[in-house]
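Posted in: Structural Biology > Protein-Ligand Complexes

Title: Requesting predicted complex, nicotinamide-adenine-dinucleotide in pocket

I'd be grateful if someone could produce the C-alpha cells for the following input. Sequence and ligand are given below.
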Amino acid sequence: MANELNATIYYEDDADPNYLRNETVAVLGYGSQGHAHAQNLNDSGVDVIVGLREDSSSWEAAEADGLTVATPDEAAAAADVISILVPDTVQPAVYEAISDGIEAGNTLQFAHGFNIHYNQIQPPEDVDVTMIAPKSPGHLVRRNYENGEGTPGLLAVYQDVTGDAKQRALAYAQAIGCARAGVVETTFREETETDLFGEQAVLCGGIASLVKTGYETLVDAGYSPEMAYFECLNEMKLIVDLMYEGGLGAMWDSVSDTAEFGGLVRGDEIIDDHARENMESVLERVQNGEFAREWIVENQAGRPSYTQLREAEGSHEIEQVGEELRSLFAWAQEDEESDEESARVQA
Ligand code: NAD
Ligand code: MG
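-- Reply #1 --
Done. Output follows.
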C-alpha cells in the first residue's frame, strides 16, 4: 500500500471565477444536489436557470428561492454549462430530451460518473464533459456555503475540447463553495468505481450486514433484543464519530484497553480472507460493468428485486426493536437536537 498522498487538491486560489462570468449554467433537477448548486451558483453571481418538468412540485420552490425556471430542454438550450442533477437512473432519458439544445463548446457537468462511465449517456465529441461531485448531501453543500464554509468535492475531466474544461469546472466548484474546503482531482472511472464499491462493500451494504449478523448472533444465543440492538446498532454512531474526528486511532484511544485488545485480536477473524475475497468479487463486478447492467435492467423491469429486498430489510426484527427502543429513549434525541441548536446559536 502506498503511504504517501498523491492526489492533486485545488483550493480557492486555484479557481478563476472569470471562466463562468459570461456563461449561463442550467441546473437540471432541484433535489438534494440541484437546489444547493443552483442557489450557491446564483449567490456567487453566476447566471443560473433551473430546468424542471412542467408538473414538477419543485417549480414553485425554485421560483420562491429567487431562481429562473424553465423546462429541461429550454434551460439546456439557453445554457453554456448544463449541470445534470436529476437522479442517476433518470439521467439518460433527460439527456435524450435536452440533446438537441447542446451546442459545440458547451459543458456537460455531472456530480457522479455512472452514466458517462457506463456509456448510458454518450455525449457529442465537441463538448466538454466534467464532474464536480461534492462529498456530502446537498443540504450541507447549501448550509456550509451560507455559513461561509466549504464542502470538499471531487473534480474530473472526461472530455476537454475547449481547453478550459478543468478551469471552468474549478470555477463551478468555487461558486458552489467546494474550493473553500478543497477539490480532489480524480477521473470519472475512479469516482464511479470507488463510489459503488464503497457503498456496497463498506458503507451501506457492509455495515448493514455487519449490524444484522451481530444482532442475530446475540439474539440466537439467548440475549435480549434490547441489549443486542444497543451493542450492535446504537453504539455504532459513537464509534464512527470518533473515527470521523481522528481516524481509527482516536477510536482505539477512546475505548477501554479491554475493548482495544479484544477488537484488535478478533477484528480480522470477522473480516477474514474469505470476506476479503468477497470484497474483491464485488469490486470486480463493479469494474467489469456487471453491477451497472444489473441495476439498469432492474430499473427497466420496474425494480422487482429492489422492492423485495427493501421489504425484507424493513421487516428485520432489529427494525421493530429499534423503533420501540428509540421511542422509549426519545429524550436522548431531543437533547441532541437542542445541543445542535445551541451550537448553532454560539457559532
Ligand atoms: P435527488 O433524487 O435528490 O433529486 C433529483 C431531482 O431531479 C428531483 O428533486 C426532481 O427535481 C428531479 N427529477 C426527478 N425525477 C425526474 C424526472 N423523471 N425528470 C426530470 N427531473 C426529475 O437527486 P440527487 O441525490 O441530488 O442526485 C443528483 C446527482 O447528484 C446524481 O448524479 C447523484 O449521484 C449525485 N450526487 C448526490 C449526492 C447526494 O448526497 N444526494 C452526493 C453527491 C453526488
Ligand atoms: Mg455514493
